[in-house]
Batch of 2 targets.
Target 1
Amino acid sequence: MSKIEEVKAKVEAGKTKLVAGLVQEALDEGNSPNDILQAMVDSMGVVGDKFSSGELFVPEMLIAAKAMSKGVDVLKPLMAGDSSNSLGTCIIGTVEGDLHDIGKNLVSMMIESAGFNLVDIGVDVPAQKFVDAIKENNNVTLVACSGLLTTTMPALKEAVQTIKASGLEGFKVIVGGAPVTPEFAEEIGADGYAPDAGSAVVKAKELVKA
Ligand code: B12
């Protein structure tokens, strides 16, 4: 089994104590941070499928998520890029009722690397808290809302609409998360959508520079 396959297997198995070391070993063997990250993202897909089929339950899903976070911590410094914060401040959060944060954290990491000052307001964020954060921070150019559950898609809509109705200006709103489609993003009035962390950066820069 290659080191990368080992990382994937241990994330799936929720081996929180082993993953960081294995990620480091995979790096030492010359694997790219992106390839290692993708392997861990794939693991979460497998875990999700096993949850759907009743092979795994919430505690196993949670522990796999923790294992992945340990691996991401090792990769984070290597993914860092432009730290000039020249693109302004990005407020990011997962919408109300939703506790999923791995995707949000990856998007945060990439957006920060691209040159935004990142303000992460966490998970289960009520719509008004996004508005408060925009008011409390300087030079907000981007607001990013994440939602992972079909049942929290209405909360995503409420967040975007509350932000848009606040009368505050000078920023764009981007949304994402597994159940979100470009059509849904447009329907709820978001300025942009991206399917993953890499394309989120491309879209974020495009929106802010427009
Ligand atoms: C880990 C996990 C959990 C963990 C979360 C831990 C954590 N700290 O995040 C725990 C155990 C808490 C959990 C709980 C639940 N979960 Co869950 N979970 C998952 C799992 C396995 C992985 C999610 C993940 O991290 N994926 C990896 C990341 C990298 O991908 P991502 O989140 O999609 O993010 C990428 C993109 O979507 C995008 N993106 C994300 N956010 C944003 C934001 C912006 C602005 C942009 C541009 C892009 C973007 O970029 C990211 C990076 O590339 C998924 C299965 C899956 N295939 O996704 C189920 C899944 C999402 N969960 C599911 C369910 C049902 C639940 C529960 C309701 C289970 C229960 N009965 O209690 C609860 C809900 C709790 C709540 N209120 O939120 C379902 C959702 C089904 C649906 N259609 O809604 C899934 C799909 C599993 C399944 N196949 O059934 N879960």
Target 2
Amino acid sequence: MNVSEAILTRKSVRAYLDAPVPVDLMEKIIEAARCAPNAGPFQISVVRTAGLRQKINDRTLDAMIHSGNEFLQQRAALPGYQPLYGAPVLFLLSGPADAPYGAVNTALAAGNMLLMATSLGLGSCYLVSPTLAFNGPNNLDLVQEAGIPDGYKLQCAVVAGYAADENKFTLGERKRKGSVHYVG
Ligand SMILES: Cc1cc2nc3c(=O)[nH]c(=O)nc-3n(C[C@H](O)[C@H](O)[C@H](O)COP(=O)(O)O)c2cc1C
């Protein structure tokens, strides 16, 4: 698949098969992140342990429920909603808490990861919801277990895996976002 096809076919996948991502594919996704435009340090924690993914999932769900944000609370209340969607691998992208471009660096890296995953035949989804669990109160155990460096803050996450047929939390039709204004 070339880049244009990956861009046009990528979508947020929110249901995964219980099948591991082969290590060579995972490494390609990580490599893609590290080739993105960048203006500062960041780290990718690759969470392959099912137990830790479950813990992060549950704490994220709890944080969504208690967020006070109506959109997040509605999502969390959907029957069967799991914020990590049962994906077999979770990438956590963190950067220095006080760095000016931490969010941009990690978002660009994550964008490359999504496109690489698509080109490899994998589903993926960009997530900010885990930041509610990691950057909220009583988070130190998660930060330590995920190996996020001292002084770093979780900026975003990516899940990837083989897409399940049923994808009930994703709209079937892909929409075009944003607006365009031509000058001249
Ligand atoms: C800043 C940002 C945060 C997002 N956070 C989440 C998230 O926490 N959970 C989720 O399922 N999707 C999340 N998404 C994915 C969007 O919901 C998704 O990209 C959007 O609905 C468009 O759908 P598409 O990716 O299939 O084109 C996030 C996207 C962005 C840009």
